[in-house]
């Protein structure tokens, strides 16, 4: 019954029970004394009341000391160990946080350092292998770039598994390219599925014309089978796609998506399998109802990893002067936003970028307020599931910990380059790295689905509002 309660609450209940037991014993003793005496009960009642308040005061004082010097340090120590174990962070334990726990803190630090050294040696070996794979990928990317076609690999559920740099430019003419997205979000579903049906029937290459979903683009394409493997390849002649010769994007892929089926409801999806869009804004001020956005940065996280190349990084023309005080914070001035898109067009593009994903932000109510205000003027709605790293930090590290982005990054060993601080994309990247570190920590505590996490974040509503609509 009590195993599901937090450590601090259980300790508080123990001291409450102790105080109640002492008061009951005292009342019993006073009652027996009164029965065996011939004096009026007033003196016994007065003594009992004074003693009861004294017992409560002493128990409360001892509980506070115990809470500050034992319970909280134990929770901080456990958070530190979980962080080291599941996020890969190598942050030294602050001995002052557990100075009253005897040898427990030094022992934990010794174990942590030993595991860290072992992990570092393994990481070096992995890094060397990764470097070789990265070099191979760079060579492959360069080779594919020289081939005048755009290639998109699609799984049996019609989700994008791989696209090269030229395909990214093709997709970007329609909507922001997104790995794991349905290909029918980019090309007309009817013409694509007709061509796919013919491909499935004949098992041979099919030549077709693919139209963009907005009807403004048309591409000569080939659908090719994968030699008996599930899925298919879309090949588009770059001559018909109006691809800029200087366009350069990374080869983007995740072959684990080949076996992925159509997504389940977000609440039931495993955290490590979900698609996230992490974003941040820079604004003219701190009042969403009257200030405006001057920069928006966003990136995607898929299957627990940041997707290279799937990024939005844009200045925004606020159609008003930017206060000097705000420029001192983010460095964006009036002349920098001349010719930048307005927030309406940026909002629409960002909305498309978020399709099928959970929106993630640090202090989400602030950033989402600007999007909601703008969306009211457009025929779109930001009804996506939302994850706030402030609330997730409270779940993992306790409500009493500091939950600023800098504090969380320090706790997780994440370094934010100084030149990226207070830029929308820089803070979005820091938040994305925080999210990637937090996912295995949440899973280790038994929160394996998005619904599990939201159930816990709602318990911290006094800290910050959870923006998800209750089921």
UniProtKB/TrEMBL annotation:
<feature type="domain" description="Exonuclease">
    <location>
        <begin position="275"/>
        <end position="444"/>
    </location>
</feature>
<dbReference type="InterPro" id="IPR006054">
    <property type="entry name" value="DnaQ"/>
</dbReference>
<protein>
    <recommendedName>
        <fullName>DNA-directed DNA polymerase</fullName>
        <ecNumber>2.7.7.7</ecNumber>
    </recommendedName>
</protein>
<dbReference type="InterPro" id="IPR012337">
    <property type="entry name" value="RNaseH-like_sf"/>
</dbReference>
<dbReference type="GO" id="GO:0005829">
    <property type="term" value="C:cytosol"/>
</dbReference>
<keyword id="KW-0812">Transmembrane</keyword>
<feature type="transmembrane region" description="Helical">
    <location>
        <begin position="44"/>
        <end position="66"/>
    </location>
</feature>
<dbReference type="Pfam" id="PF00929">
    <property type="entry name" value="RNase_T"/>
</dbReference>
<comment type="subunit">
    <text>DNA polymerase III contains a core (composed of alpha, epsilon and theta chains) that associates with a tau subunit. This core dimerizes to form the POLIII' complex. PolIII' associates with the gamma complex (composed of gamma, delta, delta', psi and chi chains) and with the beta chain to form the complete DNA polymerase III complex.</text>
</comment>
<dbReference type="GO" id="GO:0003887">
    <property type="term" value="F:DNA-directed DNA polymerase activity"/>
</dbReference>
<dbReference type="GO" id="GO:0003677">
    <property type="term" value="F:DNA binding"/>
</dbReference>
<keyword id="KW-1133">Transmembrane helix</keyword>
<dbReference type="GO" id="GO:0045004">
    <property type="term" value="P:DNA replication proofreading"/>
</dbReference>
<keyword id="KW-0472">Membrane</keyword>
<feature type="transmembrane region" description="Helical">
    <location>
        <begin position="12"/>
        <end position="32"/>
    </location>
</feature>
<dbReference type="InterPro" id="IPR013520">
    <property type="entry name" value="Ribonucl_H"/>
</dbReference>
<dbReference type="InterPro" id="IPR036397">
    <property type="entry name" value="RNaseH_sf"/>
</dbReference>
<comment type="function">
    <text>DNA polymerase III is a complex, multichain enzyme responsible for most of the replicative synthesis in bacteria. The epsilon subunit contain the editing function and is a proofreading 3'-5' exonuclease.</text>
</comment>
<dbReference type="GO" id="GO:0008408">
    <property type="term" value="F:3'-5' exonuclease activity"/>
</dbReference>
């Amino acid at each position: 019954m009590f195993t599901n309660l937090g450590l601090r609450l259980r300790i508080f209940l123990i001291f409450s029970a102790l105080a109640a037991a002492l008061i009951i014993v005292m009342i019993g003793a006073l009652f027996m004394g009164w029965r065996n005496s011939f004096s009026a009960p007033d003196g016994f009642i007065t003594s009992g009341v004074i003693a009861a308040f004294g017992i409560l005061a002493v128990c409360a004082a001892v509980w506070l000391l115990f809470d500050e010097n034992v319970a909280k340090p134990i929770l901080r120590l456990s958070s530190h160990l979980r962080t080291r174990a599941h996020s890969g962070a190598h942050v030294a334990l602050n001995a002052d946080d557990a100075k009253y726990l005897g040898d427990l803190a030094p022992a934990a630090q010794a174990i942590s350092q030993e595991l860290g050294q072992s992990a570092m040696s393994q990481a070096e070996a992995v890094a060397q292998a990764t470097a070789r794979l990265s070099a191979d990928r760079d060579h492959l990317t360069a080779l594919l770039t020289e081939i005048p076609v755009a290639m998109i690999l699609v799984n049996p559920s019609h989700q994008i598994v791989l696209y090269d740099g030229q395909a990214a430019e093709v997709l970007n003419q329609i909507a922001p390219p997104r790995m794991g997205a349905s290909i029918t979000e980019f090309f007309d579903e009817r013409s694509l599925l007709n061509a796919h049906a013919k491909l499935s029937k004949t098992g041979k290459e099919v030549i077709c014309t693919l139209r963009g979903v907005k009807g403004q683009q048309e591409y000569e394409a080939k659908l090719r089978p994968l030699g008996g493997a599930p899925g298919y390849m879309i090949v588009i002649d770059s001559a018909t796609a109006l691809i800029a010769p200087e366009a350069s994007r990374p080869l983007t892929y995740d072959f684990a998506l080949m076996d992925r089926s159509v997504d389940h409801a977000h609440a039931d999806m495993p955290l490590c399998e979900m698609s996230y869009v992490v974003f941040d804004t820079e604004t003219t001020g701190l009042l969403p109802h009257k200030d405006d956005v001057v920069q928006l940065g966003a990136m995607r996280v898929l299957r627990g990893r940041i997707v290279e190349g799937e990024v939005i990084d844009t200045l925004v023309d606020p159609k008003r002067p930017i206060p000097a005080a705000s420029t001192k914070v983010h460095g964006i001035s009036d002349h920098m936003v001349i010719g930048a898109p307005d927030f309406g067009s940026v909002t629409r593009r960002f909305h498309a970028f978020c399709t099928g994903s959970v929106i993630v932000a640090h202090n989400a109510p602030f950033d989402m307020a600007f999007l909601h205000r703008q969306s009211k003027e457009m025929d779109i709605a930001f009804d996506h599931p939302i994850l706030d790293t402030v609330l997730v930090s409270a779940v993992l590290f306790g409500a009493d910990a500091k939950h600023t982005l800098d504090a969380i990054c320090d706790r997780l060993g994440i370094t934010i380059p100084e030149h990226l601080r207070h830029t929308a994309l820089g803070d979005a990247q820091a938040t994305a790295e925080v999210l990637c570190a937090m996912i295995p920590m949440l899973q280790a505590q038994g929160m394996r689905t998005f619904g599990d996490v939201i159930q816990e974040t709602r318990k911290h509503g006094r800290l910050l509002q959870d923006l998800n609509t209750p089921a």
